[in-house]
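We were asked to recover a plausible sequence for a given structure. The inputs and outputs are reproduced exactly as logged, with field labels preserved.

PROBLEM: sequence recovery
POSITIONS: 199
GIVEN STRUCTURE:
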């Protein structure tokens, strides 16, 4: 896969949302994000920077209903873009983990790009909202992301008090764990890290 651009582009339109997303795995951390939800813009910008992917997202959702559809569909699109960028997953490290602090919050994320979707999500909600967004929606984002990205994802907050810090720790840990998992391991010579010969 060296030399090729590992890129996933998704255009997804439904009656509820219209999302354009462009993910370039081997980027420089550049983000151009406009979801209509400032807190998600902040989190996706962090994700791009810390994973050193380049990420462009434009979303127009039915925010007048609430933020549920847009947040969930962002997870779907980011997952689809990641799956598309990785193709058959040959040569990647496959596993990644990171434990990242953000002030008083500490989050551990472990990922297996396995094509077996699973989400374990242990992140307490200290308040109902961050900015204008319901904090309970973040789990829907990660469920959609793991499901459509084809990955086993474990997100465990060790501790933390401030919800903004907690979610920053989550997204930064995810970015660092995923970068490790999607980075090619030269010893694999392009082959999948699996005794089945396929991810
Ligand atoms: Mn912040």
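RECOVERED SEQUENCE:
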């Amino acid at each position: 896969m060296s030399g090729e651009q590992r890129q996933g582009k998704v255009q997804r339109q439904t009656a509820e949302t219209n999302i354009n997303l462009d993910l370039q795995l081997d980027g420089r951390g550049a983000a151009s994000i406009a979801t209509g939800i400032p807190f998600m813009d902040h989190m996706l910008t962090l994700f791009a920077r810390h994973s050193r992917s380049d990420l462009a997202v434009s979303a127009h959702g039915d925010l007048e209903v609430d933020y549920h559809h847009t947040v969930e569909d962002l997870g779907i699109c980011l997952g689809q873009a990641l799956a598309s960028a990785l193709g058959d997953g040959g040569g990647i490290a496959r596993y990644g983990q990171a434990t990242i602090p953000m002030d008083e919050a500490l989050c551990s994320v472990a990922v297996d790009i396995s094509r077996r979707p699973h989400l374990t999500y242990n992140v307490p909600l200290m308040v109902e909202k961050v900015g204008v967004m319901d904090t309970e929606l973040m789990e829907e984002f990660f469920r959609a992301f793991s499901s459509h990205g084809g990955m086993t994802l474990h997100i465990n907050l060790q501790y933390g008090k401030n919800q903004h810090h907690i979610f920053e720790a989550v997204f930064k840990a995810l970015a660092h764990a995923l970068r490790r998992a999607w980075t090619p391991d030269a010893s694999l010579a392009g082959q999948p890290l699996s005794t089945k010969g396929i991810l």
